[in-house]
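Postdoc handover notes: sequence design on the structure in folder B. Input tokens:
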């Protein structure tokens, strides 16, 4: 009976010339574009993993050493730290019976899982936001950071959930720690917005955000520059974390990507791009997205501190933790006459940045 009534209702709306709303049509169009973009990038990554020697991918030597160390020389309590990433590495090594081939297979798994996870994260965002995220971090997260990529995605989901006031953000953060210790970088900003959400904060004037960002950046850069070495000594005192003391609080997978560039100009250009993008996102955020603005501002303060007080490697390592979730939350598309021009500019600019990012993770021989 109910089915018959639904069919009659459907026929009436069809006869009345019903069509999806403009918002629904835009969402459907965006999803189609996102699927095409992710499909093209996945095919490209598969092609690269098939044709490019594994040694030509950035950080492959690090992974080969890491896999051999946990496979042949692991300690009895190895499972207490980054357990899931180690288990996956051990399973791949055992099945492949060869270290190089295990890394090759693991990279394939990353290539196919990365687009699904990113699409889920950006399922409610515009295609422009997805394209910018892929341009900045697609090659790094889709090809290189095999252990840290799940941590990035889980931390981004944690940030989104925290902004929405959902306590499952804590579970996402804890799950991220099972893959990579660098998840700790995402904890302060995530907990901050989760706490503020409970106090009902929804609206914050942008000018206060900008002013606070500048003041706190200057103050903390001065203070943190004097205390970094104490922090490094403290972290290095723990056996499990000692391997990260050379670029704390970064992680090993991205260190070589940046360190091999002897020009600081690239670092400053990237920092300028990240800060500019953060400021732009604050500008584009709605009035009721005060938590998003605070999350960006607080994260930018940490980013600038890490850049000057620690190293560009650390700041690069930190940036996806806040850029990925805020791009998924804030609508960056333009309406009216600027809509078409901005879409073309974003598409072309993102394509250029993507190629440059790809060159940074694949060594030219």
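Designed sequence:
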């Amino acid at each position: 009976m109910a089915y018959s009534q639904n069919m009659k209702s459907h026929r009436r709306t069809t006869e009345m010339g019903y069509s999806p709303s403009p918002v629904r049509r835009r969402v459907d169009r965006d999803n189609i574009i996102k699927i095409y973009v992710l499909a093209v990038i996945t095919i490209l990554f598969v092609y690269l993993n098939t044709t490019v020697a594994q040694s030509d991918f950035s950080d492959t030597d690090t992974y080969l050493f890491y896999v051999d160390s946990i496979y042949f020389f692991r300690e009895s309590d190895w499972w207490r730290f980054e357990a899931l990433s180690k288990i996956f590495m051990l399973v791949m090594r055992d099945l492949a019976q060869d270290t190089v081939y295990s890394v090759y297979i693991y990279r394939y798994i990353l290539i196919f899982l990365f687009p699904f996870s990113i699409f889920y994260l950006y399922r409610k965002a515009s295609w422009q936001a997805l394209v910018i995220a892929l341009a900045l971090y697609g090659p790094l997260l889709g090809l290189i950071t095999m252990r840290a990529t799940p941590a990035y995605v889980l931390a981004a989901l944690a940030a989104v959930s925290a902004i929405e006031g959902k306590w499952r953000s804590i579970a996402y953060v804890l799950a991220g720690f099972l893959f990579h210790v660098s998840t700790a970088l995402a904890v302060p900003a995530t907990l901050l917005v989760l706490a503020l959400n409970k106090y009902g904060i929804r609206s914050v004037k942008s000018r206060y955000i900008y002013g606070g960002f500048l003041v706190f950046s200057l103050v903390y850069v001065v203070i943190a520059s004097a205390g970094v070495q104490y922090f490094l000594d403290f972290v290095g005192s723990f056996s499990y974390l000692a391997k990260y003391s050379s670029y704390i609080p970064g992680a090993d997978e991205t260190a070589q990507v940046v360190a091999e560039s002897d020009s600081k100009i690239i670092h400053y250009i990237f920092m300028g791009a990240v800060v500019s993008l953060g400021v732009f996102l604050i500008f584009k955020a709605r009035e009721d997205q005060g938590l998003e603005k605070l999350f960006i501002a607080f994260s930018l303060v940490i980013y600038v501190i890490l850049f000057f007080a620690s190293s560009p490697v650390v700041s690069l390592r930190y940036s996806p933790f806040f850029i990925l979730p805020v791009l998924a939350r804030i609508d960056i598309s333009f309406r009216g006459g600027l809509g078409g021009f901005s879409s073309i500019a974003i598409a072309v600019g993102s394509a250029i940045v993507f190629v440059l990012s790809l060159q940074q993770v694949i060594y030219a021989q």
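Context for whoever picks this up: The radius of gyration is 22 Å. Don't rerun without checking with the PI first.
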